[in-house]
Amino acid sequence: MKLAKNILLTLAAIVAVVLVFAAIVPSDFKVVREVTIYKSTTEVFEYTKYLKNQENFSVWAKMDPDMNHEFIGVDGTAGFISAWESENPEVGKGEQEIIKVDDGKRIDYELRFLEPFESTSIAHMTFDSIDSTTTIVKWGFEGGMPYPMGLMLLFMDMDAELGKDLQGGLDNLKDILENQ
């Protein structure tokens, strides 16, 4: 009986330590990648501002070319929503909304993932003109995990995982725009 009590107390202490640790560990992440595109900022921005064009360069869109899409609103403007649903669990179900458009400079998005798990994240694309034929595009993504799930970030390299997909998308975008 005493052994069982000691085991339960030890387990309770371990759980308590894990929960306290989960409360102090950062549960947010930010990932940003960039690419230099040899086209004017106007050309790059005008192509990229349309969410429908993300289907041409986004790595995630290419994971399931047969996914169902629904578009709501006027593409390229705040309030436009691109919703998707896929049988592929890596793609899942969700929607992306354009939150703000700063013409020629920046686009802010909200991503709402519904399946295989629910979460909301923020993304953005920025456009910096180097000269009349050179633009640096940065694609950023930030999010977080609720308590106590933030502990998972200790075992996941979000920068590497998301970063390769963002970079792949930017490289695809560069290829498309420079070969038009």
What does this protein structure show overall?
The protein has 180 residues and is of the alpha+beta class. It is 35% helix and 36% strand. It has one domain: Alpha-D-Glucose-1,6-Bisphosphate, Chain A, domain 4, CATH 3.30.530. It has five helices and seven strands. A seven-stranded antiparallel sheet has the order 1-7-6-5-4-3-2. Strand 3 and strand 4 form a beta hairpin. The longest helix is centred in the N-terminal third of the chain and has 23 residues. It starts with a helix and ends with a helix. The relative contact order is 0.22. The model has no long low-confidence stretch (mean pLDDT 84).
Record the SSE blueprint.
Layout: H1 2-24, E1 28-37, H2 41-48, H3 51-57, H4 59-62, E2 68-72, E3 81-85, E4 93-102, E5 106-115, E6 119-131, E7 134-144, H5 158-178
List its salient traits.
single chain; 180 residues; alpha+beta; Alpha-D-Glucose-1,6-Bisphosphate, Chain A, domain 4; 7 strands
By DSSP (H or I, 4+ residues per run), the number of helices equals 5
Q: What are the low-pLDDT stretches, counting only 5+ consecutive residues below 50?
A: none
Full CATH superfamily name: START domain
The helicity comes to: 25-40%
* Count of DSSP strands: 7
Number of domains: 1
CATH level-two architecture:
2-Layer Sandwich
Largest sheet: 7 strands, antiparallel
Terminal CA distance reads: 76 Å
| Rounded mean pLDDT score | 84
List the secondary-structure elements in sequence, H or E: HEHHHEEEEEEH
Principal-axis shape equals elongated
Strand content: 35-45%
Rg (C-alpha, Å): 21 Å
The CATH C-level name is Alpha Beta
Supply the helix-strand structural class. alpha+beta
